[in-house]
Amino acid sequence: MSVLNLLCFRHAWTLVETGTAREGAKNCGGDGCSALIGDGCSTLIFAEWVKNHGGKLYSVDINKMNLENAADALGDLMPFVKLIHSDSVNFLHKFRQPIDFLYLDSLDYDFRDPSPSQEHHLKEIKAAYPWLTPKAVVMIDDCALPERGKGKLVIEYLLTKGWKILLEDYQVILSR
Fold it and tell me: Would the pTM count as exceeding 0.85?
C-alpha cells in the first residue's frame, strides 16, 4: 500500500511536512506531481493529494528561498497549502493541532556525521508527538543510508511507544 492510499484509508486531514520543495518542481517528473524523481517533490505530491481528498498541508522550512521555490511550483495548489518559514522543531512545538500525517525530511543527512540530522529528527518527532492522532502516519525520508539515515532515532523512539513499521525502504512509514 502506498502512503497516499494509506492517507485515504486513514482519512487524513492534516498533513505536516518538515523540509519543503526546495527546488520547486525542478526535480519532479511529468507534471511535477506524478513521480518522486529527485528531492523536493513531496510538497507538490501532498498538495495535489490534499486538493483531491480534502484537508490542509503545512510545509515548514528554515530557508526562505526553498519556500519561494515551492510557492512558485505550487501555483493553483497554494490554497491547499500553508508554507511556514521557521525552524521545524520550533514550529512543531507551537503547532497545537491534530496531525494525521507527519513527513520528516528536514535537515540533510551528512555521511561524515549523521548525528545532527538524526538528533534533529528525534527533536521533531518529540515536538509533534502530543499532536499525532490515533490514526496518524509518520514517514521519514532518507532512511536507506548508513546508520539507518535520518530516521534511526525516530524509528527507535516510535518503536518503544508501540508503533509498527509498515514500510522500510528509502523511506520508512510507521503507524500505531
Answer: yes
User: What is the mean pLDDT of the segment spanning 54-83?
Assistant: 95
Among the listed residues 88, 81, 76, the one whose alpha carbon sits nearest the alpha carbon of residue 46: 81
Where are the chain's structural domains? 3-175
Q: What is the CATH number of domain 3-175?
A: 3.40.50.150
Strand duo 164-168 + 132-140: pairing: unpaired
pLDDT in tens, 9-47: 999 999 999 999 655 455 555 443 344 444 558 999 999
